[in-house]
């Protein structure tokens, strides 16, 4: 039996073991794990114990070890694994065959690193989503980085992905902005403010809104006017939005983020219709002048659908946005990326939408991808020294500066051309900011530290980017033509023997399992851990296995180890694919 294509090893091993069981227990869920490094074998099947229990319950007493023996006996002949042995308690240790490992490596070289097969879905992913007239803060940066990376992952898998920026461009904040604008700059329509001023302006109007009841009333009136499409208010609103939009775009351009803006305002007209429908279905409750909707589950907060002055809310636009994504976008999968502080909002939203019959849970998958807070090195919320929120532009600028300092400290400006230095600087700066975020479990808070993220050693972007440049440079050093390597990979009987070659190759083979796992859980840190392991295994391999032997005196190439070049190339391919998913741009020299 020959093996074609690339696939999840765990999935394939489960299939093989399933065949051994098929007649007796077709639905039994085979337990297959990666073996810990100290154990013999690459993978382990832990099902004998479970099966022995099932047999006992049906009256047959068979020990796990005996079950394991029977399992092994019934496994169909295949070229993927070496002959099997049982360990203690019927654990079955599995070693991948040399032939299989080599064929997978060759395939990853010849065909590139192919994604596992999936049922193509239409996915809407809502991320970044800053608020107009407010500065984009580090929480939005997290949403932007995590959301973009998830979108890249799903695109790589072949899904049809819609990236939406659900900007906060509607609602109460505009009431106060417009009311304050009217008082302070009656001539705004002819003379709009730049964003720096808009920030301060936002603060001023918020202060008035909080302190002055009469102002508050006018603010509410202004929102209602805006929501009723009053032309002058609409124009003012448009100008404010444009100013903000330009500032957001600068961040997106720097980080290479693609997004379609579809803010809360987009749903204004459909909101009215949906509210009618909810009223008709008797789902709205009139409470203290507001219309609210209660979720089915107890303990969840109700959604505020219409406020007492008639205005709509964040909840209302989320209801309308969800309907739009289901009905118009025809999404099979909807993902929201925000801080964990909004978990209960989304729980209520999903629950209410199910209650209203808008969501068919059997057809659509909906996820709230929540993340923790960004902390400073003092373990408190990341702030400037004066206690203000950090502007993202400043943060990115600082990253660029620190990354350049670091490269210069390592004397890289002597080795790299000015263009290469420029590329390395940006690659490292943005790469390390993204990587530091993504390599932490998103559900936890994470400590933002340039020193840590720019470290040469450890699970950092710098370390992995550097190993990538080493892997990339080898074929160049060996003067091997791409065609030579191609022919070799296609035709030769390849052998990998050195323990560090084998370790690297087997680490590489885990790629598809990692991809599958992170797609299920919508987390990215396991991918980062995987890339770090590859980089470490590569470094060990590189230090112990010559790829090219050169004459000491003449520098002439005496011998090229083609199978090692192949491993270098595939390592580079894997790392490049990983970087691509994480939104990191590697360089060939740094
Ligand atoms: N604008 C919101 C905020 O800054 C995030 C919006 C997230 N998306 C959504 N559909 N509610 O917190």
What would your notes on this structure say?
Keywords: Aminoacyl-tRNA synthetase, ATP-binding, Cytoplasm, Ligase, Nucleotide-binding, Protein biosynthesis. Belongs to the class-I aminoacyl-tRNA synthetase family. InterPro entries: aa-tRNA-synth_I_CS, Arg-tRNA-ligase, Arg-tRNA-synth_N, Arg-tRNA-synth_N_sf, ArgRS_core, DALR_anticod-bd, Rossmann-like_a/b/a_fold, tRNAsynth_Ia_anticodon-bd. One of its GO terms (biological process) is arginyl-tRNA aminoacylation. By secondary structure, the protein is an alpha/beta fold. The chain has three domains: 9-96, Arginyl tRNA synthetase N-terminal domain (Gyrase A, domain 2), CATH 3.30.1360; 120-267 and 310-371, Rossmann fold (3-Layer(aba) Sandwich), CATH 3.40.50.620; 392-582, Isoleucyl-tRNA Synthetase, Domain 1 (Orthogonal Bundle). It has 22 helices and 16 strands. Strands 7-6-5-11-12 form a five-stranded parallel sheet, with helices on both faces. A four-stranded antiparallel sheet has the order 1-2-4-3, with helices on one face. Strands 8-9-10 form a three-stranded antiparallel sheet. Strand 5, helix 5 (138-156) and strand 6 form a beta-alpha-beta unit. Helix 2 (48-57) crosses helix 3 and helix 19 packs parallel to helix 22 (562-582). The two termini are 45 Å apart. Arginine binds next to helix 11 and strand 11.
């Amino acid at each position: 039996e020959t093996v074609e294509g690339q696939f999840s090893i765990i999935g394939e091993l489960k299939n093989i073991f399933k065949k051994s069981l098929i007649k007796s227990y077709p639905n039994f869920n085979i337990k297959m794990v990666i073996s810990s490094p100290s154990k013999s074998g690459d993978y382990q099947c832990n099902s004998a114990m479970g099966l022995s229990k099932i047999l006992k319950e049906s009256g047959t007493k068979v020990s796990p070890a005996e079950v394991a023996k029977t399992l092994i006996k019934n496994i169909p002949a295949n070229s993927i694994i070496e002959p099997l042995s049982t360990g203690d308690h019927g654990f079955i240790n599995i070693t991948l065959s040399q032939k299989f490992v080599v064929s997978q490596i060759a395939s990853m070289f010849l065909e590139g690193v192919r994604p596992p097969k999936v049922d193509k879905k239409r996915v809407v992913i809502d991320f970044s989503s800053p608020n107009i007239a407010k500065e984009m803060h580090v929480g939005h940066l997290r949403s932007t980085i995590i959301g973009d990376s998830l979108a890249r992952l799903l695109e790589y898998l072949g899904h049809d992905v819609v990236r939406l920026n659900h900007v906060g461009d509607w609602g109460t904040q505009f009431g106060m902005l417009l009311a304050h604008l009217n008082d302070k700059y009656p001539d705004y329509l002819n003379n709009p403010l730049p964003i720096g001023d808009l920030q301060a302006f936002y603060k001023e109007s918020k202060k008035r809104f909080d302190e002055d009841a009469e102002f508050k009333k006018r603010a509410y009136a202004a929102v209602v006017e805006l929501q009723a499409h009053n032309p002058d208010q609409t124009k003012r609103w448009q100008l404010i939005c444009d100013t903000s939009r330009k500032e957001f775009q600068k961040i997106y351009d720097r980080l290479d983020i693609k997004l379609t803006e579809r803010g809360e305002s987009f749903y204004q007209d459909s909101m009215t219709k949906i509210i009618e429908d909810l009223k008709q279905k008797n789902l709205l409750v009139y409470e203290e002048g507001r219309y609210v909707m209660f979720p089915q589950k107890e303990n969840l907060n109700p959604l505020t659908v219409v406020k007492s002055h008639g205005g709509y809310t964040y909840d209302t636009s989320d209801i309308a946005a969800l309907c739009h994504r289901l009905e118009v976008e025809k999404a099979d999968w909807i993902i929201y990326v925000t801080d964990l502080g909004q978990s209960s909002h989304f729980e209520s939203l999903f629950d209410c939408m199910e209650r209203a019959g808008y969501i068919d849970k059997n057809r659509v998958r909906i996820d709230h991808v929540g993340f923790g807070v960004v902390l400073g090195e003092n373990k408190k919320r990341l702030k400037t020294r004066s206690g203000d929120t950090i502007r993202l532009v400043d943060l990115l600028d600082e990253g660029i500066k620190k990354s350049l300092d670091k490269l210069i400290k390592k004397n890289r400006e002597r080795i790299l051309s000015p263009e290469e230095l420029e590329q390395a600087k940006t690659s490292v700066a943005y790469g390390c900011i993204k990587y530091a975020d993504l390599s932490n479990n998103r559900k936890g808070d994470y400590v933002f530290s340039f020193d840590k993220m720019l470290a040469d050693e450890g699970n950092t972007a710098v370390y992995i980017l550097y190993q990538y440049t080493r892997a990339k440079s080898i074929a160049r050093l060996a003067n091997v033509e791409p065609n030579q390597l191609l022919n070799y990979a296609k035709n030769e009987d390849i052998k990998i023997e050195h323990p560090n070659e084998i370790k690297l190759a087997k680490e590489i083979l885990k790629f598809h399992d990692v991809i599958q796992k992170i797609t299920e859980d919508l987390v990215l840190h396991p991918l980062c851990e995987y890339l770090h392991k590859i980089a470490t295994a590569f470094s060990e391999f590189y230090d112990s296995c010559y790829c090219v032997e050169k004459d000491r005196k003449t520098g002439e190439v005496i011998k090229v180890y083609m199978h090692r070049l192949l491993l270098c190339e595939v390592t580079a391919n894997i790392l490049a694919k990983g970087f691509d998913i994480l939104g990191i741009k590697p360089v060939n020299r740094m």
